[in-house]
């Protein structure tokens, strides 16, 4: 009677796991940006706060997924959040230029 | 012993903290009975209830008007002078509380009034794609950006976007236009 097959050694098992991770990564849902619209708003008052008085940046993104289907995503940023967002894009631009 | 006579700032400060957690920061489970038993155990419930309502009302008025310190002093002084108002010791506790918690309460109020998703986080990396055919090598760097978005009180949603260098620069140009608008808005008199 044949001896049962031994478990593959740890290094091999980890390679198999990495392969699955890679396959998942390749099919990761990544979208491309089709359009970027923005507006600068000022929240003045609300039912919970009569004196809001804060400016905000509202963004509407149109993004296309790998199949070409376009969907809309909206979000808002306070001014400090926008400034951080802008700073990060400048960093990305600086890095991408050097790659 | 009446709630109004119970001085020593600790119970009132604790009460204001709990009221802020309940009213502004959305902390669940803060009941009238819990507050009374923890902070004012010697005050009967029928007396605690109007006291709690009065303090909640004062805190909401101050937050709603986003009072600066002059407005706050005037408001609290008026409260000490009216029938069934507050004592000057209580006014001092409320004033100190607002000064140290104003920013955080205001931030919560802003979050509550935002009904779109907010930007909770942004992470990115740049990949250098390299294609090799025979001996030619083409490098097309790609920026991968993950935006974490979420509505108030809801789970985050993650959006992963890919940009080439051209797209990154296009976005940068748009963002500089936004910044210009912000500068124009800020420089305008009220």
UniProtKB/TrEMBL annotation, chain A:
Name a GO molecular-function annotation.
Answer: NF-kappaB binding
Superkingdom of source: Eukaryota
Record Pfam families: COMM_domain (PF07258)
What range(s) does the COMM domain occupy?
32-99
PROSITE patterns given for it?
COMM (PS51269)
Function summary: Scaffold protein in the commander complex that is essential for endosomal recycling of transmembrane cargos; the commander complex is composed of the CCC subcomplex and the retriever subcomplex. May modulate activity of cullin-RING E3 ubiquitin ligase (CRL) complexes. Down-regulates activation of NF-kappa-B. Inhibits TNF-induced NFKB1 activation.
Organism, by scientific name, is Piliocolobus tephrosceles (Ugandan red Colobus)
Task: Report the sequence similarity comment from the record.
Answer: Belongs to the COMM domain-containing protein 6 family.
| Protein name per Swiss-Prot or TrEMBL | COMM domain-containing protein 6
From TrEMBL, chain B:
Its GO biological process terms? copper ion homeostasis; negative regulation of protein localization to cell surface; negative regulation of sodium ion transmembrane transport; positive regulation of protein ubiquitination; regulation of proteasomal ubiquitin-dependent protein catabolic process
The record's listing under Pfam families reads: COMM_domain (PF07258), COMMD1_N (PF17221)
Question: The organism sits in which domain of life?
Answer: Eukaryota
Instruction: List the InterPro entries.
Output: COMM (IPR017920), COMMD1_N (IPR033776), Murr1 (IPR037351)
Q: COMM domain spans which residues?
A: 118-186
Give the transmembrane region(s). none
Entry GO CC: endosome
Family as reported in the entry's similarity comment: Belongs to the COMM domain-containing protein 1 family.
What's the protein here called?
COMM domain-containing protein 1
Native organism is Piliocolobus tephrosceles (Ugandan red Colobus)
| Organism taxonomic ancestry | Eukaryota, Metazoa, Chordata, Craniata, Vertebrata
């Amino acid at each position: 009677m044949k001896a049962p097959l031994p478990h593959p050694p740890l290094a091999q098992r980890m390679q198999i796991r990495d392969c699955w991770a890679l396959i998942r990564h390749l099919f990761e849902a990544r979208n491309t940006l089709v359009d970027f619209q923005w507006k600068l708003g000022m929240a003045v008052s609300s039912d919970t706060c009569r004196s809001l008085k804060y400016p905000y940046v509202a963004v509407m993104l149109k993004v296309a997924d790998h199949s070409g289907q376009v969907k809309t995503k909206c979000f808002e940023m306070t001014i400090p959040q926008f400034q951080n967002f802008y700073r990060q894009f400048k960093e990305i631009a600086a890095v991408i230029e050097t790659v | 012993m009446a709630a109004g006579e119970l001085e020593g700032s600790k119970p009132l400060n604790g009460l204001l903290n709990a009221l802020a957690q309940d009213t502004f920061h959305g902390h669940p489970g803060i009941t009238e009975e819990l507050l009374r038993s923890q902070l004012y155990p010697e005050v009967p419930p029928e007396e605690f209830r109007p006291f709690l309502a009065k303090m909640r009302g004062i805190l909401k008025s101050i937050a709603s008007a986003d009072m600066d310190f002059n407005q706050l002093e005037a408001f609290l002084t008026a409260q000490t002078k009216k029938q069934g108002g507050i004592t000057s010791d209580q006014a001092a506790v409320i004033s100190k509380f607002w000064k140290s918690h104003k920013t955080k309460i205001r931030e919560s109020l802003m979050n509550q009034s935002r009904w779109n998703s907010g930007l909770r986080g942004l992470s990115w990396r740049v990949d250098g794609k390299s294609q090799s055919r025979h001996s030619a090598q083409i490098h097309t760097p790609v920026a991968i950006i993950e935006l974490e978005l979420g509505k108030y009180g809801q789970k985050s949603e993650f959006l992963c976007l890919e940009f080439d260098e051209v797209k990154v620069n296009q976005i940068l140009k748009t963002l500089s236009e936004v910044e210009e608008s912000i500068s124009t808005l800020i420089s305008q008199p009220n």
